[in-house]
Amino acid sequence: MIDHESGIPLYLQVADALRKRITTGEIAAGAELLSESEIAAVCGVSREVVRKGLTVLRSEGLIVSVRGRRSAVRRELPVEQVSVVGPARVTARMPTPVERDRFGMVEGVPLLLVRAGGGEMLYPADRVEVCMLSHGAETRGGPR
Amino acid sequence: MIDHESGIPLYLQVADALRKRITTGEIAAGAELLSESEIAAVCGVSREVVRKGLTVLRSEGLIVSVRGRRSAVRRELPVEQVSVVGPARVTARMPTPVERDRFGMVEGVPLLLVRAGGGEMLYPADRVEVCMLSHGAETRGGPR
DNA sequence: GCCCATTTGTCCGTATGTATA
DNA sequence: TTATACATACGGACAAATGGG
Fold it and tell me: Tens of pLDDT along A67-126?
């Protein structure tokens, strides 16, 4: 499972192993992981190494951690459709701590920035999908 | 500067202090920070606390770190305009390590997902802006 | 090309605090 | 209240990459 001789950082090996089990669905959304100490014992590494691996997964938005509880696979939230009509530009960046707090976002979730009509709107990317419609557009011909 | 009695985690205080100096432009894009040891000495905390604070800023996409060099404020990249014609849905998430590698993305930069015309395209959010044009739209710039 | 000081990265250990159940 | 579990903080040690001389 964990190869101490491979030269690959142990915390990355821990993160990689867990990520695979999460993305394949072996560990379902909402399910709890083993405790940090248990993972450390199973993998034969220190708890700090496990914590560093979990930090990686948190920043990827794969798990959420709450003090006193085992870390759990992040649940998918219902996606709200936000429509914009006419010329608009959309990009994304990570939120500031203030923005994370304001929108109640967990770690590892980007912020969507929609600029249209002279204003700018911000949306948490795990709950919002931006639907861009050109004015009087028909449904035909996308890019590529 | 750093208050050991405030109850606010020291590494967050370090991150907050540096974030403010970065976002206000006091430390310009591309400029190097002090070394971790120097920051630790200045702030009166351990190097591990400083490293944890820098990890926060990295995951926010504010700084980039390279082994052997001091961490530096992330430079803004020229933004490529990707235009879409017809209805499109745009969202964002953090990239997997494989995707980060494929696109040459640094830490703390989200991935833009554009679904249009039955397909899905991926773009690094620090280099690409998705544009929806109203009339006579043309598609400039291609996928990578 | 090579050494050397600097600097960040990895890993371990210990201790303590604090939230959860 | 108690046990579990995650969070914070410090310390030391060594590895690996950078950049200058």
Answer: 999 999 999 999 999 999 889 999 999 999 999 999 999 999 999 999 998 899 999 999
Taking only the tens place, the pLDDT of each residue in B5-20 is 999 999 999 999 999 9
Interface membership of A40 toward B (CB under 8 Å)? no
Q: For A82, name the nearest residue in chain B, comparing CA atoms only.
A: B89
Distance from CA of A14 to the nearest CA of B (A): 14
**pTM greater than 0.90 (yes/no):** yes
For the segment A14-38, what is each residue's pLDDT rounded down to a tens digit?
Answer: 999 999 999 999 999 999 999 999 9
Please choose, from the candidates B45, B63, B57, the residue with its C-alpha nearest in 3D space to the C-alpha of residue B9.
Answer: B45
CA angle in degrees (0–180, nearest 5) for A93-A98-A101: 100
Taking a C-beta distance cutoff of 8 angstroms, is the pair A62, A90 a contact?
no
Residue of B59, B91, B133 lying closest to A112 (CB–CB): B91
pLDDT in tens, B103-138: 999 999 999 999 998 899 999 999 999 998 765 444
Contact flag B91-A130 (C-beta cutoff 8 Å): yes
The answer to whether residues B112 and B124 touch, using CB atoms and an 8 Å cutoff, is yes
The span from the CA of B25 to the CA of A59, in Å, is 25
Distance CA B104, CA B99 (A): 8
| Cα dist from B110 to A2, A133, B11, B45, B60, whole Å | 29, 23, 24, 31, 10
